[in-house]
Amino acid sequence: MSGLLSSATAPAAKRAAFRAGLASGRLQRFPGAFSPLVAKLIAEIGFEGVYVSGAVLSADLGLPDIGLTTLTEVAGRGAQIAAVTDLPTLIDADTGFGEPLNAARAATALEDAGLAGCHLEDQVNPKRCGHLDGKAVVPPAEMVKRLRAAVAARRDPNFVICARTDAAGTEGLPAAIDRAKAYADAGADLIFTEALSGPGEFERFRAAVDVPLLANMTEFGKSELLTARQLGDIGYNAVIYPVTTLRLAMFAVEAGLREIDTRGTQSGLLDRMQHRSRLYELLRYADYNEFDSEIFNFTVQGGRW
């Protein structure tokens, strides 16, 4: 039964694994999951962690990424995703959902939800996507208060508090480096450097900041898409691919719906669909059946939906 209805690994152990991964000298790869099912696939393929993007969560609700989601929505979805895998899950907590006291409550709620860590950013609330123009950042002292509140509120010292700075695009790289140092001094365990342009800027940040660093490899943004090998060689500790799985899925969904609309059938799409048998394999149908066939019994058949 272990690992069927929920993760076989306790949240505290996942947090310890996240800490160990950041200190391992090996790049920790965290693809974004827009659903628990995607998180199961991320784990099966062999990545080191799962990421829950605020932009993706907003989009999944049909909303733009401008700070409209609530702590309850974020914690609830994060809990669902974190529960289905033994991997640590890092979640986007935007600007902390308000004042420093709100950031403290966010850290507590996300820890209770089984997450391994969260990141807070230094944008003005309401925020916007980090790869759009027109961002504004709060004074460093205000962000330091957010971080100190979150750090003070956590109960598990292994719950990772990550500080994201958007200052590189508004104040320049030297100012972003100064902010990163101040955020680390405030207790941040990991620094998320948003919207750096290319290898040179990532290298400059790594050389200047002596704490674990996270890179954001999002598509169609301001950052060049560096490989995991490149980031590891530069010395980054973690990388997120926040919107990749949603973009892949939505591209396929749109193409499929348009074909149904024009052709009147999905029969030409079958070779582009996940087979029923593969879905059942990912969901471990057979293991559920074996657990107690007298209570819940069914036959898994091959083929397609």
From TrEMBL:
One of its GO terms (biological process) is propionate catabolic process, 2-methylcitrate cycle. Pathway: Organic acid metabolism; propanoate degradation. It catalyses: (2S,3R)-3-hydroxybutane-1,2,3-tricarboxylate = pyruvate + succinate. SUPFAM superfamilies: Phosphoenolpyruvate/pyruvate domain (SSF51621). PROSITE patterns: ISOCITRATE_LYASE (PS00161). Its cofactor is Mg(2+). GO terms for molecular function: metal ion binding; methylisocitrate lyase activity. Pfam families: PEP_mutase. Its EC number is 4.1.3.30. Keywords: Lyase, Magnesium, Metal-binding. InterPro entries: ICL/PEPM, Isocitrate_lyase_ph_CS, PrpB, Pyrv/PenolPyrv_kinase-like_dom, Pyrv_kinase-like_dom_sf. It comes from the Bacteria. Belongs to the isocitrate lyase/PEP mutase superfamily. Methylisocitrate lyase family. Catalyzes the thermodynamically favored C-C bond cleavage of (2R,3S)-2-methylisocitrate to yield pyruvate and succinate. This is Methylisocitrate lyase.
